[in-house]
Amino acid sequence: MLDIVPASTSTSPSRGPATPQQRRDDGPCGGARLVLCGDLEIESRTPAYVVIVHTVTSRRLKLTTAAFDLAMRFQAPAATLEIANTSGLRAAVERLVGAGVLVDPDAADVGGASSRRLRNAVPYRFCNAPAWQDRTSAPHLVIVGIPYDLGSDRGCRMSPLRIRERSLGFAYRTDAAGEFPLGWFDANRGLRILRGATMADIGDIHVEYSESRAALYERVDRVLSSELPDQAVLLAIGGDIVAGLAVAAHMNARMPVSIVRLVVSQAASPHNDIDVRSGDATGDIEHVFSIAPSGIRRQLRSDAVSTLVMDADALALQHADEIVRSLRIESAIHLSIDLTCPMEGVATGAVMASWRREVGPLILAMGRAHRIVSIDLVGLPDDAQGAVASTVACHLALTALSAAHDRV
Amino acid sequence: MTVSEAPADTLFGWPAAHTGPERMHGLLCVLGAPTDHGSALARGAASGPGAIRAASAGLMTPGHYGRDAGDIVSAPGVDLAVVLQRLAGMVEEVLELGMCPLVIGGDHSITYAPVSVLQQREEICLVWFDAHTDFSPWAGGEAHSHKQVLRRISSLAGVRKILQIGYRGLTTEDERRLGPDITVVTSAATRELDEDALLALVPAGMRCYLSIDIDIIDPAYAPGTGAPVPDGLTPEELERVLRILVRHRRVAGLDLVEVNPRLDPSGHTASVAARLLGDIAAEWERQIDFTSPSPVDMASCTENPA
Questions:
Q1: Strand locations in chain B, DSSP E?
Q2: Where would you tag: which of A12, A18, B129, B277 has the fewest CB atoms within 10 A of its CB?
Q3: Closest Cα to residue B255, out of B108, B93, B46?
């Protein structure tokens, strides 16, 4: 018996439209050359079964020994017809291709070599949501980590790991059938959020720190092009502002977006504005707004900057909906939440906790007024001590996802 | 007193508690409970009693209404059930001396011990200051965590009324309705409570126990705790609520828990905790019944009033 079954017990998001990747995988491979995927590791084996893990996607598969032996015959690239000379074997090869065990050796995204690697599996998934294993599903919310931090002064490449680990305290739960997400209860607002919103974590985008920033943008674009369904809301966990800009650039290629940046500290703004103005990622983006504690800065394209200034008191007194209306945004929004903070140690968390209270209503108001298509959460310093900073980051992430999905 | 370890420094410099001839009726009696047993999140709350006592050294003594009995013996490897038993025994001794237990944690699981003792003597109202309801499912038996402790306490017959103050954040379920004798007031609602509305929630004819988890305070002010939640009360907002209760209700006992010095290298959280206790102690004279017929030498209570 040549059988393959998913070995994971994780809940899969509900079914939806096929993804671009799935559509690519649908074709027959009778005469095609195939090779064993280089990103597989054996987790365990018995005389009857072998459990393998795809280290890029976290997908675990349970293969019968016969299926595993068949796959091993493709350690060197070979034509299907050379190996599988019966219709039954060819069907088994089809299933191995569909499961990602066998791949096209001539494809650009075959995996197996670090220089071509697109994604990495992660030890914790955001809120323990399922890894995106079932490519026939289209989750409402997609999580990705981008641990790139060479665009900032302080390290923040550990943030995806830290935020995901902390998020395990906010577990993604479904009904008993594993189909309908129950969401969370927002005690502050007295309502349930993200009810029915399916979520999947696609792991981290692979970062080669020695390569160019353009190469990172290109990798982000390739991953999101293949993995992000059209209607899904993306949460990208950086990394620093560069990771966020790479995501914004991809989203802007899908549809016109305005970037709204919420920054913890103005200390983060001057440095980051250089990146924004450079236009390497956001040159065609219509509006970029930076909202800092001391006011609002409005930039119209990279070459047409106008500034709307509000002092801190005015910002505190004005209703969040009025502030959002005053921005006069007409496009969809990429919401960038920049946690870069000049403080160190536990003070980082203390500053973030105060700031979150100020921007929470703004985030929700933006969701009510506009379509938020993507969110980045960047700049959480690696040296922020204690549980507060990562806890605040989790609250901000779920609040922003609720703003984008629930819109209340 | 028995089973205790004498502290190097006492809370607010109060005298050590002892069984000598000095009369101590109505005074607060500090009991340290250096435990991590009930916390699944992080070790470190066991250092809370020492950190809060040290932080109190920088404050003015808030009246001479307290004694410090030290910490219960909680050697590594001792089971939580044993710790709770020892703490309950010390609370019994404190009550026999006519004093009011002020327990410093430790994690929140320890609150079960003083409340279980007090509710056997009289019906009480429990006021639970916490960002969480601590009402996770509990399977019974002798063990419980800090996430289950209020559910276990709610099963005690003498706990007639529970007021939970400070619930907030993102939770799995809506935890605002936990039972017919339990009232939950969120952080946001607490800010809107005036004095009359607050007192209406705490029966005047029943003594109350105040259990304060430091995570009720916003982590901007008290980051050193294992399960911080944004949007908490400011220290001043909590002080206002505590002051009203101490002035207008009879307090049978209190605790302050979940200060974790390992997550608080700046010491801010321990300082906030010490100030909260100082604020309570400064109001404590109102709790002492000077007309009590008990054989108490009142002069010892009033010779150095705040």
A1: 4-5, 28-33, 66-72, 100-105, 124-129, 159-167, 170-171, 182-186, 207-213, 251-257
A2: A18
A3: B108
Q: Which residues contact B306 (CB under 8 A, 6 or more apart)?
A: B61, B62, B63, B64, B65, B281, B282, B285
pTM across the whole model? 0.82
Tens of pLDDT, residue by residue over B19-54, are 555 667 899 999 999 999 998 888 999 999 999 999
A3 pLDDT band (50/70/90 cuts)? low
Interface of A with B in 156-215 (CB under 8 A): 169-171, 173, 182, 184-188, 190, 192-193
- Taking CB atoms and an 8 Å cutoff, what residues of chain A touch B39? none
Q: Determine the distance in angstroms separating the CA of A273 from the nearest CA of chain B, rounded to an integer.
A: 28
At CB < 8 Å, which residues of chain B contact A? 41-42, 167-176, 186-188, 218-221, 223-231, 263-266, 268
- Residue B284 contacts residue B246 (beta carbons within 8 Å): yes
pLDDT at A21: 41
DSSP per position, B112-125: HHHHHHHHHHS-EE
User: Any residues with CB less than 8 A from the CB of A404 and at least 6 apart, and which?
Assistant: A233, A335, A367, A371, A372, A373, A375
Interface ipTM > 0.90? no
Q: Does the structure show a pLDDT above 90 at A261?
A: no
Residues of A in contact with B187 (CB under 8 A): 188
The beta strand positions in A251-399, using DSSP E, are 257-263, 287-292, 295-300, 304-305, 332-338, 372-378
| Burial classification of residue A274, based on how many CB atoms lie within 10 Å of its CB (0-12 exposed, 13-18 middle, 19 or more buried) | exposed
